[in-house]
Amino acid sequence: MISVFIGFRSFKFWVYFIQISMKFILIVAFALSALSLNSQTLNGQILDSLDQSVIPFSKIYILELDLHTQADENGEFTISTKLPINYQLIVSAPSYESFKLKMTNSENQIKVYLTQSHHEIEEVTISGPKGTLQRYNAVHIERMSLKDLSQIASTTLGEAIAKMPGVYNTSTGLGISKPVIRGMQGIRVVSMLNGLRIENQQWAGDHGAGITSLGIGSVEVIKGPASLLYGADALGGVIYYVDESYAAQNKTEFGFNTQNESNTLGTTNQFSFKKSGDNIRFNLAGSLSDHADYRLPDNRFAANSRFREHAVKSSFGWNRSKGVLNIRYTYNATNVGIPGHTHDAVIAEDKLKVNNQSREQRLPYQDFRNHYLSFDNKWFLKKGEVQLLLGQTINQLTEFEEKVTIPGIKMNLYNSLYHLKYKRSINEKLSYKVGVQGMYQMNQNDLKATELLLPKSSMLDNGVYLIGFYNHKTWDLQAGLRYDQRMIHTDKEFKGNAIYNETFEGLNFSAGAVRNKDKYTFRVNVSSGYRAPHISELLANGFHHGTLRYEIGNLNLKSENATQVDVTFERHGDHLELVVNPFYNYIQNYTFINPIDSLIEALPVFVYEQLDAVQLYGIDFGFHFHPHFAHWLHIETSYSFIESQSTRQISLMPQNRILSGLKFDVKDVLFFKSNKISIDYNYFFKQDKVSELESESPFYQLVNIGINTTCGKKENFDLNIGCKNVLNTTFIDHLSRLKNLGLESPGRNFYLKLSYNFSK
Questions:
Q1: How many CA atoms are closer than 13 Å to the CA of 24, on its beta-carbon side?
Q2: pLDDT (tens digit, 9 = 90+) per residue, 272-285?
Q3: pTM higher than 0.85 for the full model?
Q4: Residue 69 backbone zone (phi > 0: left; psi -120 to 50: alpha; other: beta)
Q5: pLDDT of residue 711 exceeding 80
Q6: What average pLDDT score do residues 507-534 get?
């Protein structure tokens, strides 16, 4: 097995991590000793609605407090905390329909009856306008837990979320990846971490996502314009990362996992510590990843594709009788080589592919560091709720081109955010939410850098919105309006351009309806969004070595505007789940970067331009078959199809694809329990609809295999072993930034992941 820790260089990280951890624990200990809280007690029992038998070990979740516990073997549970005046109790158990119950803090004894079902457990979607079970959302939200996405292990978080229908991954090797939703990427896709907007120079495809799988519990995806709740830029959709829950009430949990991979000789190690009392809870986690150059199918290696990543995550929660407070901090540091980098007019293959694998830092490379801090406070009122989120993010991006002492590009991005919203129920059927949201962003250059690609600039966003909700029998209706204003300002002239000072405005709407019956759900939603031009599109003028091009901005760009119609039909059977999700998205003033017939110092010149209109349309289709005669078998398939239409073909449209999986539940063998075998077959169709100077991509097929099992007296060891790209297929994904260089994606990769979880 590969060593759990690689190199002495990681020692400094763990010293830093322990220092941060001790400070955090001291703060929590002080808070615990300073507070004297009187809790309320809710006792309950979970029963089968058909025969009133007990349902053991079901999950009980209080939505407003993000608090959960588990029933015992008799179906009984106890929650002791400061409860809101009004709150929602969500109860779920395997093979039963999830149940939502409206509660008041005057109730202290309940019985909940669940109805049998073969459906998967339905979870609350946090990213939706209402924050409830998916069946009640008028907006279609794709939600998957990280555990489900990791049945066959992924090297990075970006690789994991690309398994979701309609979601892809654009990458520069393994260390740099960005999410793509229905052909939209970069600035058009907004990423959120527990409601905090992630800002990390995402205008460039070669800048990493700045977030790891550490402490992530689930991922939610809104496909298409989502400006109503998330403001400007969410034209293509939203990737919403949700942290793991705190430990169950009055529990202490510890977890450790290590994942080792043969292809990169890589290791990823994570540990977490969670503790929850009646009203106070906190989480602490850390991770270290180290990967050498990845192996190609021909047994050579992609030169300088190595990367290393450290992360620390902490959170603190405090429940009060009239509110709840959550403070979260995440630090992420990544050092990643830039594969395929060359200024040569004729690319020499021996510079892209080498015979020896290495993990030592080599020029050129990127170093980016991210800090995410948020204060999320809720106040519970008799008929409503007030929530205030304050956040600060810092992104430090450095690119080293020719010398390790002098950066080619070095930029610091500071982003201060706020989101204040008020939710009120007028009666049992009618409610509304009103909010104001904004951010102040400042981008600075380090004068030591040899190249200034962007000017020093600031951006101020403010928006106000109103959303109404109405329930009528089996129908849930939703409609809302939002107004946004963005001001962009530069401090001084930049490479011949005068001081820039401009204001952009956007008025957007969303309207939708969802109908729920026993066997089906029907949903339709119409939404709009807008995106003001980014400073990189307006004023860029310089070398961007990470993308191997000279970029020139365009001061005449207008705001992009999009309108999407999204329809979802879901069929719920005892043994068959079916989802059909067609969409149509019409985008005006579509901005793209276009190559021109010119070179500056051997690098091609690209200029930002706009198309009057682009149409994107397609369908996401999926089913899950769990036959009655073979309860040990699960068959899952999703099909993602997307087309574009405009006066010219736009670039980097993803390949249509079919993702299929077979999952087998295997009987216990000796001390191995809960055994599952997963076989994935992925088919990517040929992509021949390409823009100028963009090459076509042939079809390719991938096969992956994974085995998951638990062992130990308390079943607290999890073992995940398998192989990705079993057939050692030679392929290049159409969205790979290395495609035009002919640099293939990784070959066969064996992996072994071992996890240990302890609860007291």
A1: 24
A2: 999 998 889 999 99
A3: yes
A4: beta
A5: yes
A6: 93
Q: Is 189 helix (H, G, I), strand (E, B) or coil?
A: strand
- Of the candidates 262, 225, 689, which has an alpha carbon nearest to the alpha carbon of residue 484? 225
Rounded CA separation 394/110 (Å):
46
Instruction: Check pLDDT > 70 for residue 344.
Output: no
Q: In the structure encoding, which two tokens stand for residue 428, read together?
A: 């049992």
CA dist., res. 318 & res. 376, Å (int)? 11
CA dihedral 742, 212, 367, 204 (to 10 degrees): 60
- Amino acid of residue 270: Q
- Domain coordinates in residue numbering, the chain: 37-117, 649-760
For β-strands 189-193 and 237-243, DSSP reports them as: parallel
Rounded to whole angstroms, the Cα distance separating 131 from 222 reads: 13
The Cα angle at residue 709 between residues 706 and 713, in degrees rounded to 5: 165
| Per-residue pLDDT tens digits for 85-109 | 888 888 888 878 888 888 888 888 8
> What is the identity of the amino acid at 371?
H
Contact 274, 285 (CB under 8 A): no
Q: What is the DSSP string of 644-690?
A: EESSSPPS-PPPPEEEEEEEEEE--BTTBEEEEEEEEEEEE--B---
Residues 131, 99: contact at Cβ < 8 Å?
A: no
Q: Which CATH class is domain 37-117?
A: mainly beta
* DSSP bridge pairs for 736: 171
Q: Vertex 586, ends 435 and 513: CA angle to 5°?
A: 50
